[in-house]
Amino acid sequence: DSECPTLEGADHLSQTQLLTRLTHVCRYDRLERPKRESVNGTNGPVKVYARAYIYFMQNLEAHDLQFKIHALLQFRYVDPRLVFREVAPNRTKPIMGEQSLRDLLWVPHVFLANERSSDILGTAEKDILTSISPDGTVIVSTRISATLYCWMNLQKFPFDEQHCSTVLESWMYNEDDLVLLWEHKSPVTLAPELHLTEYVLLEMFTNETVINADLSDLRHGAFAGNYSSLSFTVHLAREMGFYMMDYFIPSIMLVAISWVTFWLQADQSAPRITLGTSTMLTFITLASAQGKTLPKVSYIKASEIWFLGCTGFIFGSLVEFAFVNTIWRRKRNVEVKKVNSKHVLKQAITPRPARKDMSGLHKSHSCTSLADSATTVSANSFNNYLTVHSIPQKSPSSATLPIIATTDMDRAMADASNVTIQIEGQTSNVNGNGWTTMTPQEVAIWIDKRSRFVFPIAFVIFNIFYWTFVYYV
Prior knowledge:
Layout: H1 15-22, E1 46-57, E2 66-78, E3 95-97, H2 99-102, E4 110-112, E5 115-120, E6 128-132, E7 137-149, E8 161-170, E9 178-182, E10 188-190, E11 199-213, E12 225-238, H3 241-258, H4 269-291, H5 302-328, E13 334-336, H6 341-349, E14 366-367, E15 384-390, E16 402-407, E17 419-423, E18 436-438, H7 440-472
Parallel strand pairs: 1-9, 1-10, 14-17, 15-17
Antiparallel strand pairs: 1-2, 2-7, 3-6, 4-8, 5-7, 6-7, 8-12, 11-12, 13-18, 15-16
Helix pairs in contact: 3-4, 3-5, 4-5, 5-7
GO molecular function, one term: ligand-gated monoatomic anion channel activity
Keywords: Cell membrane, Glycoprotein, Ion channel, Ion transport, Ligand-gated ion channel, Membrane, Signal, Transmembrane, Transmembrane helix, Transport
InterPro entries: GABAA/Glycine_rcpt, Neur_chan_lig-bd, Neur_chan_lig-bd_sf, Neur_channel, Neuro-gated_channel_TM_sf, Neuro_actylchol_rec, Neurotrans-gated_channel_TM, Neurotransmitter_ion_chnl_CS
């Protein structure tokens, strides 16, 4: 063809002149992929080798399920139509250029399959570097900024580990025409200064696979087939320092503060209600601030189990106060067979009043000893007191005969039939029939004292199960 420029004397041509002649339409069609002869003489697929260098990686954004990277992507392949080693033997250095050179060549169209958005970095000129070696090897390097989706599993948040991938796929050519491969040496490299604040990089690995596209999902337009794909995955583990200091330790302290109410008397409603409600509201505010950065997922996260557990303990302290306050305001004493959790709680929930029938000294319902012989009775008491004074013994063999004096303190409460027997020098809370009588106030105080130990022990057990689940399940 007379219009086709010759390649003779290519050693004396400039880089631009040589490139112009090599890519002239009579020799080069940029819409056609390079030919590569296979063993049996047919045209085989073009092998494109990829390499990535990661400059920057932003922390995973859990609420958007995405992360951002700045990377250099480099693709290497051989185009036999661009070989100039024979026509310019003295030219040993590659032809180099930027966007203008890239626009003259056929380049593989490789896209980020999990991309949300991406840009080519650069200021006045886009950061694209293209080089053509004498043997026809083409290297295209591009600095990109990409926001990629990472389908995170947050069931163990904030103790989770995430696998986030960057997926590269051939867009136009299926595996019969183009095959993507990682470079054998250092396919993916991280910048030495790369540092993640919320995560620690455990490992990184690459993968080569084939993606099947059919006409139903239109993954590759209206074309079906098997397309070559590359991916590199980073395995990240979340750092726990922030969450321990800002969430878990403060929440443990708030739960412990809610137990202070057990040391306040059951009839002190104002301080106990204020303490319980303020603790509950503070913990909810703390948990809501921590949960704003998370997406609304359908499954239960580890942080929500912790929230429900701590909320349950704080709410339990409020319920315990309402329970003992109700018992404190009761008017009737109750009899228990034994002073233990089973019998006291049973009588507290379904109280049975003290028995009215008496035998002997009318079966006293509670006995209290006084430090001195004088008996002091509160003016607010609703009980009838039966005081028994012992007569001093005249001889060791003489028997002790009690003198019984009865004082009616409040005839208005005679129907209660509450009689207290006080025997000087002796202490007894057990009736003649083996039952023990407790006042409502004694029951409330007994429950508060047991709660001081039950709640902390239960919370420790909850922590053992929770942290075992977090680290070993």
